[in-house]
Design brief:
44% helix; metal-binding; coiled coil; three-stranded antiparallel β-sheet; transmembrane; zinc
């Protein structure tokens, strides 16, 4: 037999045929031909220098229920093949689902990282805004404190000196501003007491004065009206 090989041998008996070499041929099993697993008679000098070509199939009568065994074997083999096909199909479906899940996880992770980055940037901006607002608040409080301190200091200097701040209720026809402020000597009030009722001392100016800041004893404020205190008090000396 061409293309056959033997990997096992069995003892011979009287019924075994003799090969061309004149010796009894052992039973061998073919694995590399078109009939794998089929047994045959072959020369004991096979694949040796003798190269005997004797060949004869060995097909004994099958045992009882041999056909049933073969049928069940074939059915089992078909079941295994079918199950293997289903397993391959299920495996492919699971692989596809795994790819989709991995893609979804990747997209979700990217979105989460972007959201976290945006949240951190927003938090940084909020902290910067809060810090800026606090700085501005501190500056405003300091400015207000300075203004109040200067006002109180100026008023204290005025009270302790020979000068008094007066607020008149004259109106400007051009700008309709109801305030005029000037600084005058106490001697003017003593000399012209009749004008005390027309003028308001600084003691009662809290709800009447507008925008009075930092009056020093020798400072004279600008007019907001066309008239002056001089016209009201018969030309007292202005400072």
């Amino acid at each position: 037999m061409q293309g056959s090989s033997s990997i096992s041998s069995s003892s011979v008996d009287a019924l075994m045929p003799r090969c061309h070499c004149g010796v009894r041929s052992p039973i061998r099993t073919a694995w590399k031909c078109d009939y794998p697993g089929r047994r045959f008679y072959g020369c004991s000098g096979y694949e040796t220098t003798r190269k005997c070509s004797f060949f004869q199939w060995y097909d004994p009568e099958p045992p009882a229920r041999y056909s049933d065994v073969i049928r069940r074997f074939l059915e089992t083999n078909e079941g295994i093949i079918s199950e293997n096909t289903e397993l391959k199909k299920t495996r492919q479906e699971l692989l596809d689902e795994l790819r989709r899940l991995q893609q979804s996880v990747h997209e979700t992770r990217a979105k989460l990282e972007a959201t976290v980055a945006a949240s951190m940037a927003m938090e940084d901006n909020m902290l910067a805004s809060v810090a800026t607002t606090r700085k501005r608040g501190v500056v405003i409080i300091v400015l207000i404190s300075v203004i109040v301190f200067v006002d109180l200091s100026a008023l204290a200097l005025c009270f302790q000196s020979n000068w008094i701040i007066f607020i008149s209720r004259m109106h400007s026809t051009k700008y309709n501003k109801p305030r005029y402020t000037s600084i005058h000597s106490k001697s003017i009030i003593l000399k012209y007491p009749e004008y005390k009722q027309r003028l308001h001392l600084v003691h009662t100016y809290s709800r009447r004065i507008y925008g009075v800041t930092a009056y020093l004893p020798h400072m004279r404020l600008n007019h907001t009206s066309g008239r002056s205190i001089k016209e009201l008090v018969n030309s007292p000396p202005q400072l």
